[in-house]
Design a protein that fits this description.
About 50% of the residues lie in helices and about 30% in strands. It is α+β, with helices and mostly antiparallel strands. The chain has one domain: Heat Shock Protein 90, CATH 3.30.565. Strands 1, 2, 3, 4, 5 and 6 form a 6-stranded antiparallel β-sheet that branches. β3 and β4 form a beta hairpin.
Length: about 180
C-alpha cells in the first residue's frame, strides 16, 4: 500500500530540472533558458520563476561553504537545485552547505521574511540595501525578492552535517496562475 501511495504522489508532480554540483554562471544561464522553455505555457509563472531561479541560484553560487576555486581567483559555490511541476504550481528548491555559526541568523531571517506583509518586505529590502552587514548576508535580498515575486512563504529545512556545517534548503512555491 505504501508503494502505491508513493507512486500516486509521484504521478502528481514532475521533476523538470534537477542538478547537483558547482553553480558556474554558464550553467545557470543554460538552466535559466531551460526554466523559461519548461514553463512557456504559463506566462505569469514563467517570469516569476525565472527571476526567483536567478536569485536563489546566485545565492548558492556566491555563498555556499562547499565551493570550487577557479584559477585560484573565482569562488564557485556547490549545491543542488530542483524544479518541480505540480497541477497548480511549481516549486523551486536550492540546497547548499552553510556554516552552523551562520544558521541561526539565516533561519531567523527566513522566519522574519515569512511573517512580513508586502509593505514590510519592501521596507526590509530597502533597509537591507542600506545596512548590509557585509557580503555574506547579501543573500537576504534574494530571499525577500523571492517571497515578493511568488507571493508565497518560503519553506526551509536545516540539516546539521557536523559541528561546523549544515545544509540549508530553500523552497519557493510559484502558482501557475
Amino acid at each position: 500500500m505504501y508503494f502505491y501511495k508513493k507512486l500516486i504522489l509521484n504521478l502528481k508532480n514532475k521533476t523538470l530540472l534537477s542538478y547537483r554540483g558547482p553553480f558556474y554562471i554558464e550553467l545557470i544561464s543554460v538552466f535559466g533558458s531551460n526554466v523559461r522553455n519548461y514553463t512557456n505555457a504559463y506566462t505569469n509563472a514563467r517570469k516569476k520563476l525565472f527571476r526567483i531561479f536567478i536569485e536563489l541560484s546566485q545565492n548558492v553560487s556566491n555563498y555556499s561553504e562547499d565551493f570550487h576555486m577557479v584559477n585560484n581567483e573565482y569562488r564557485i559555490g556547490v549545491g543542488e537545485l530542483n524544479l518541480k511541476e505540480f497541477e497548480n504550481h511549481f516549486t523551486f528548491t536550492t540546497k547548499n552547505l552553510i556554516k552552523r555559526s551562520d544558521s541561526t541568523i539565516l533561519v531567523n531571517r527566513c522566519n522574519l521574511i515569512n511573517s512580513s506583509n508586502i509593505s514590510e518586505l519592501r521596507q526590509l529590502k530597502r533597509e537591507q540595501r542600506l545596512n548590509s552587514p557585509g557580503e555574506k548576508f547579501g543573500a537576504r535580498i534574494g530571499l525577500i525578492q523571492a517571497v515578493m515575486l511568488s507571493q508565497n512563504k518560503i519553506e526551509y529545512q536545516y540539516e546539521e552535517v557536523d559541528e561546523r556545517f549544515a545544509y540549508l534548503s530553500i523552497t519557493v512555491k510559484i502558482d501557475k496562475n
